């Protein structure tokens, strides 16, 4: 996702956070966009899936 796809209100808010956190926001927005376009359903990580953490590198995505 590029800044051109984000409302100016949110761009102003995003300018106040660190580059690392801003990247996480863009990454999360990209995931939501893919869900909207491809009917993607996240099955991991999900509530009750912690028993599978050891099967994935890094134990899942902790950032979002």
Write the layout of secondary structure elements.
Layout: H1 8-14, H2 19-38
Summarize the structure in words.
With 64 residues, the protein is mostly helical. The protein has two helices and no strands. It has one domain (3-49). The radius of gyration is 14 Å and the shape is flat. 0% of the residues are buried.
Structural class: mainly alpha
Shape: flat
* Mean of residue pLDDT values: 77
When the domains are counted, the total is: 1
Number of helices: 2
- Helical proportion? 40-55%
Distance, first to last CA = 16 Å
Beta-strand portion reads under 5%
List low-confidence stretches.
none
Main pleated-sheet profile = none
Number of strands: 0
- Cα Rg: 14 Å
The arrangement of helices and strands along the chain is HH
